[in-house]
């Protein structure tokens, strides 16, 4: 119970009401003590006035008057004269004197606390103003025990009353909180659990109905979240179904195109000049189609193995990539260069990093070749205490704005005709598998530049 919201409200209410009652109790107990003493002064004054009116009285009547007044003796000051009106033996010397004439509130509170917590019975002297202006002042002595007993009785009554008020207030607040706050919150939780059972079912999306502003806002936010999640799940399901269909079609299409490619290869040896002229274009078209289907199948499988990290000489790896790419350049005016410090050894999967660098260099070569103006591609490396950085830069035409917007998105980031848009996506996944990052350098002018960040040790790469 005490772990619940309403249970904690119950405990806090009791505590706070009791604290409030304590703040009320302190000045009220001081007021009660003052009234008690003033009542004793008033009764002593009445007894002394009766004595003054009747003249001398016997000892028994004097003791009865003092007993009824609850004091030991009474002193009146009238007409500048101080007169002992009633007196009886005092059991002990006066322990403390209290003047009730214009006493500050903090002194009344202090004296009340002292009287409440002092268990010893002692004699007190109290000075006050007589009622009805019957003199200049009146002074009485009285025992402290009756005062303390009265204070304890009053304090216990206040305590029980405070406890009763606390329990009643806490119970009312408990049920109010359960009705107004806890029950609507439980309703939202139940609805969330119901929605979680079948998030694809749009009928289970919450309908905001609470009248409390904060809970209504929470329901509105939950409705928006559930609506977006349901739509995303539906889209994901459709994409999964579409992906499965594309994979099956691509698989069969790849087989068909492979056969067509074999037949097209034979057409190149035809003696017919028209066939000989058209055959290379046909072969290239079929080759692009086969590449597209194979890339689509590879991406759809999403089965890239985790990198097998080892110490890799970076210069050797870069030279291997560039040598392979030089074979594809032919008569094009494209130069390849490397700026890698000799002896640089990185921690990576050599095969996967080779694929990434080859893809970046090939994209740069194809972009320069499509522009027909010639250019240069350079692989540059540097390192610090946290990571290795590899830059692949070219002096080509650069990426168009549309390609930059969809960079690294599958089937959307290709800037060349016939491209699949999967190369950069796969490359980024491979680099992320190393704990690194692949990104387009934002401030590079004169072409296109990509940079690869590979961490040293367990460092995290954050741009």
TrEMBL record:
It holds the Pfam family HATPase_c. The keyword Nucleotide-binding applies. InterPro entries: HATPase_C_sf (IPR036890), HATPase_dom (IPR003594), His_kinase_dom (IPR005467), HisK_dim/P_dom (IPR003661), HisK_dim/P_sf (IPR036097), Sig_transdc_His_kin-like_C (IPR004358). GO terms for molecular function: ATP binding; phosphorelay sensor kinase activity. SMART domains: HATPase_c (SM00387), HisKA (SM00388). The keyword Kinase applies. It is an enzyme of class 2 (transferase). This is histidine kinase. It comes from Donghicola eburneus.
């Amino acid at each position: 119970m005490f772990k619940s919201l309403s249970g904690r409200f119950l405990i806090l209410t009791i505590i706070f009401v009791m604290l409030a009652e304590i703040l009320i109790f302190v000045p009220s107990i001081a007021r009660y003590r003052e009234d008690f003493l003033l009542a004793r002064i008033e009764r002593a004054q009445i007894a002394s006035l009766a004595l003054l009116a009747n003249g001398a009285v016997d000892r028994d009547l004097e003791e009865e008057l003092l007993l009824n007044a609850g004091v030991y003796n009474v002193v009146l000051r009238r007409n500048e004269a101080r007169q002992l009106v009633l007196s009886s033996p005092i059991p002990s010397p006066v322990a403390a004197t209290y003047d009730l004439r214009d006493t500050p509130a903090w002194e009344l509170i202090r004296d009340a606390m002292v009287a409440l917590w002092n268990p010893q019975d002692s004699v007190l002297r109290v000075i006050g103003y007589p009622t009805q202006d019957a003199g200049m002042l009146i002074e009485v002595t009285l025992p402290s025990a009756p005062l303390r007993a009265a204070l304890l009785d009053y304090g216990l009554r206040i305590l029980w009353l405070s406890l009763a008020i606390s329990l009643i207030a806490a119970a009312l607040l408990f049920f109010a909180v359960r009705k107004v706050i806890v029950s609507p919150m439980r309703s939202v939780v139940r609805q969330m659990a119901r929605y979680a059972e079948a998030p694809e079912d749009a009928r289970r999306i919450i309908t905001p109905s609470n009248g409390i502003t904060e809970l209504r806002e929470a329901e509105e936010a939950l409705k928006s979240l559930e609506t977006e999640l349901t739509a995303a799940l539906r889209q994901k399901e459709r994409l999964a179904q579409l992906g499965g269909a594309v994979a099956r079609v691509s698989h069969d299409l790849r087989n068909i195109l492979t056969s067509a490619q074999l037949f097209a290869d034979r057409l190149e040896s035809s003696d017919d000049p028209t066939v000989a002229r058209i055959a290379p274009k046909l072969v290239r078209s079929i080759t692009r189609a086969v590449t597209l289907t194979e890339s689509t199948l590879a991406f759809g499988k999403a089965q890239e193995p985790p990198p097998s990290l080892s110490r890799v000489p970076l210069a050797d790896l870069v030279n291997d990539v560039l040598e392979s790419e030089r074979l594809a350049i032919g008569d094009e005016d494209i130069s390849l260069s490397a700026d890698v410090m000799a002896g640089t050894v990185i921690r990576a999967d050599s095969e996967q990093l080779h694929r990434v660098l080859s893809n970046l260099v090939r994209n740069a070569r194809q972009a320069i070749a499509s522009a027909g103006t010639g250019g240069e591609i350079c692989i540059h490396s540097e390192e610090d205490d946290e990571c290795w950085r590899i830059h692949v830069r070219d002096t080509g035409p650069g990426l168009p704005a549309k390609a930059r917007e969809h960079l690294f998105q599958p089937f959307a980031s290709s800037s060349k005709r016939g491209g699949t848009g999967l190369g950069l996506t796969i490359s980024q996944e491979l680099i992320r598998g190393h704990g690194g990052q692949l990104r387009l350098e934002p401030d590079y002018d004169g072409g296109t530049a990509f940079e690869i960040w590979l961490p040293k040790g367990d460092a995290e790469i954050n741009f």
